[in-house]
Amino acid sequence: MYCVRFALSLIISKILTFGFSQINLENRSLIRIFRFAQVRLHLNNKKIKNCVFYFVLCSICTIFDYIEDTHVRIFSNKFGESLTYSYLCRNFINKGIMISFVVGLILLVLGYFVYGLYVDKMFGPKADSTTPAYEKQDAVDYIPLPTWKVYLIQFLNIAGTGPIFGAILGIMFGPAAFLWIVLGCIFIGSVHDYMTGMVSMRCGGVSIPEIVGNELGNTMRVVMRVLSLILLICVGAVFARTPANLIAVLTPTSGFWGGALFWLIVVVIYYICATLLPIDKLIAKIYPLFGAALLLMAVGIVYGLFTQPGTVPEVTEALTNHYPERGLPIFPCLCITIACGAVSGFHATQSPLMARCVMNEKNGRLVFYGAMITEGIVALIWAAGAIKFADSLNVAGDTPYVKLLNFMTENGAHSADPAILVNAVCNSWLGSVGAVLAVLGVVAAPITSGDTAFRSARLIAADFLHLRQNNVAKRLMLALPLFAIAIMLFFIDFQILWRYFAWFNQTLAGIVLWTMTVWLVKQHKFYHITLLPALFMTFISVSYICMAPEGLHLRDFTGDDSMSYIIAGSAMVVTLLCFHFWFHSYKKKEYTNKNNS
């Protein structure tokens, strides 16, 4: 393990060299303050938290290595040699290798093995614990399933078109999208999904509103029930219309048969079946095929990234807002646009579904943390692929970002349609096989999130109504009202529906992260892994609703977004203070009870 930890730290340090090798600062006097002559890493402590420390330390060393144009020397008490890759790095850059993209992919994978392992060790899964899949087995929702199948179902449940469409729209803000996908996925989204799934498993597989109510009180339980049902019904409505419209475009026919309305009816019928039938009868049988298609399409896009013309921007341009339509600030709009590829509250409604099917708590890291990392990889691939493809297009625009927007709206659409780009990229880069994968990716992906959205809504309603779901009649009694509401939403403008969904989504993520923070405090575990993300998501949600046109749109009154940031910052501070007072009150109460006992 000594050698493994040393090698891991060294590899991370040298991988990050690629990402910062192009930094060129004019004023070098300030940088010399931070000059590192030598960094000694003593890797003799076996605690996993040191891997996180070395991860951060190696990152800092590598950044300043290239800012100062020197070489960081990494030593241990057994390895006394210096290793540098400057020459190799410069050769890669000269050949046009996509440094930020490659580093991002590697960091996501390392995130699973380093930070994911840390989070898993901190939570402490129990191999001998009886999971809800066995404890409450009912042959409908609580069913033990193989780990690989649970992982694929979880991946498709949380993915939908989010990591594809969101990444395509988000990359128009610039390479800041790469940073948000990688950092958000590792430190926020994956932690959010893992904690939700594992806590649900510990609580008997209950839905997220019940978990929130147990930790934050009955008022928040009611709020979460309402928010969750609204979010899930919106997801179901959005992910019914999207594939229906796409199928109608891909299979054009005259009249009712083959039109958008016909396919919408077909999709809704499928949703009803997937919502009512036992999870192993339909969902568990078709999801592996769709999951393989989605991952195969991502692999094909990676191949195109390294073989097709065009360039991918580096993170050295990340602080510049490249969005073609001015007035949309990177922060928080980027964090709202790219949700599923970084962090999404919708995932909190899906993880309990699989918490009822996991056979062993030790499998939780792969199922929950791993599925989110996989989604982040897909999002990163599509973000890079979209901007590289746009750069090679012969359309109007002086930057790839303008070309990308113009290409997605060239048919007179009122707003950018990422499905146009997905279809074009797959057909251009992958040929006839790509056309099939495009259909599966942009049609099957939303369907596999829409069906589980309605299923989650049914289970949430069943939890707070205390209604067992052991027969079809009871399931139908809850499902029909949900579908009736969703059908009414079909007639609302798609863009309005999607904007409110996006805000609800990230607001829900913030509430869930606060819930997990309280749970960790009560379990005497390291709660900062969710506290800091909770504060960040609080700022994101509040600032967005303050500045967004569908929200308060304070810019109309102040002329800029400063007031929105001030209100969001104040909300974050107030929330932190409330947590601080609760924390000390809880600890005092716990201390008193301990002494009395």
By DSSP (H or I, 4+ residues per run), the number of helices equals: 23
Structural class: mainly alpha
On the 0 to 100 scale, the average pLDDT is 79
| Rg computed from alpha carbons, rounded to a whole number of angstroms | 24 Å
Query: Uncertain regions: pLDDT < 50 for 5+ in a row?
Result: 1-96
Order of the strands making up the biggest sheet? 1-2
Strand content: under 5%
Main beta-sheet strand count, sense and barrel state: 2 strands, parallel
Give the helix proportion (percent range).
Answer: 55-70%
Query: What's the N-to-C terminus distance?
Result: 43 Å
Number of strands: 2
Shape: globular
Task: Give the H and E element order.
Answer: HEHEHHHHHHHHHHHHHHHHHHHHH
Please describe what this structure looks like:
The protein has 597 residues and is an all-alpha fold. It has helices at 2-20, 49-67, 86-94, 99-113, 115-123, 132-135, 147-159, 162-170, 176-202, 208-216, 218-250, 260-276, 283-307, 330-337, 346-355, 364-391, 400-408, 418-465, 472-489, 494-522, 528-547, 555-558, 562-596; strands spanning 39-40, 74-75. It has a two-stranded parallel sheet with strand order 1-2. Helix 2 (49-67) links the parallel strand 1 (39-40) and strand 2. Helix 7 crosses helix 18.
